Amino acid sequence: MKKEKILITGGSGFVGTNLIDKLPKDIYEIFSIDIEKPKINFDVVKYEKIDIRSKHIGSLIKDIDPKIILHLAAQSSVSVSSKNPVLDNDVNLSGSLNLFLSSTKSNVEQFISFSTGGAIYGEELGKNFKESDDTKPLSPYGISKLNFENYLNYFSAIKKFKCKTIIIRPSNIYGPWQNPHGEAGVVSIFAEKMLKNENVSIFGNGDEYRDYIYVDDVIDFVLKIINSKEIGTFNISSGEITKTIEIFDYISNIIGYKKPPIFLEKREGDIFGIEIDNSKSRSIGWSPNYNLKAGLESTVSFLKDS
Ligand SMILES: NC(=O)c1ccc[n+]([C@@H]2O[C@H](COP(=O)([O-])OP(=O)(O)OC[C@H]3O[C@@H](n4cnc5c(N)ncnc54)[C@H](O)[C@@H]3O)[C@@H](O)[C@H]2O)c1
């Protein structure tokens, strides 16, 4: 059987690495593009170092001729977006648009784009946000992600291109391969510091809450949506909210860490809390498999071994 060609952007990142690891290699011929080197050297995956803003993206897509594009490449940090909104817009909007418009000149049939669930709806404590709710991003990152969604929805509505588009709005993803030294990803940051018995800082008072979803559950959704007839926007979340201090306590217990957290001022662009409804994604037969305890244990054991 001829394998289907799939192009992943941001394949060297946290989610991209997990995705490439899980994609069945007997079904898909996998191509990955990124500005960073891959974290795992998969022999069967063809990697190209290229920026999604490059003018050569179009000819690369023509050469590869993928049927599906999974767009994950991004400036993915809210705090970097607050410090450098021009860079954020350049990558997340201009780069993404460059990639999408280039892919419409080729035979791409499905364009699946990672947006954000946590940074797009704004903040209304007690509200469980659905895909149809108003969007009020409170950071340049949320704005650039929403602006690219608007372009995808615009092109989809005017039916100018045959390529079908899917927008995925994940909540806070955690799991193996998340950068423990980055500015986002509290689970890996806390766990790495606790394993080294270093001090752990919390931005805010610890009552801030998020929906944490294990990376394998996000990938299960991607596997479900590839080649499906679905179009449109899907929240991907666990459906459970957890306070930052609870994350701190759970990981402390798993590791046996005894130091108290250090509370710092909240960062610009960080919201207090967000709850993300996953009933639309559940309605197409997906549901999260991991509870928080299992996901945290698996993440800690990955960090211990790496
Ligand atoms: N991790 C989360 O909690 C989360 C939550 C919601 C949405 N998302 C979105 O999911 C996607 C994947 O997230 P992640 O956590 O794997 O992020 P990540 O930062 O780990 O990976 C992003 C990858 O994109 C690459 N990249 C950045 N700029 C590029 C450019 N100009 N050209 C080519 N490659 C470039 C980076 O080198 C990196 O490997 C992103 O679009 C992110 O915004 C992530």
Question: Quick gist of this model?
Answer:
This protein has 306 residues and is an alpha/beta fold. It is 37% helix and 19% strand.
What does this entry look like structurally?
- This protein is α/β, with parallel strands linked by helices.
- It has a domain at 4-171 and 215-237: Rossmann fold.
- Helix content is 37%, strand content 19%.
- The strands form five sheets. The chain has a seven-stranded parallel β-sheet, with helices on both faces. Strands 6-15 form a two-stranded parallel sheet.
- Helix 2 (57-64) packs across helix 4 (85-104) and helix 8 packs across helix 10.
- The longest helix is centred in the first third of the chain and has 20 residues, at 85-104.
- The two termini are 37 Å apart.
- Residues 10, 12-16, 34-36, 51-53, 72-76, 91, 95, 114, 116, 118, 170, 172-173 line the site of nicotinamide-adenine-dinucleotide.
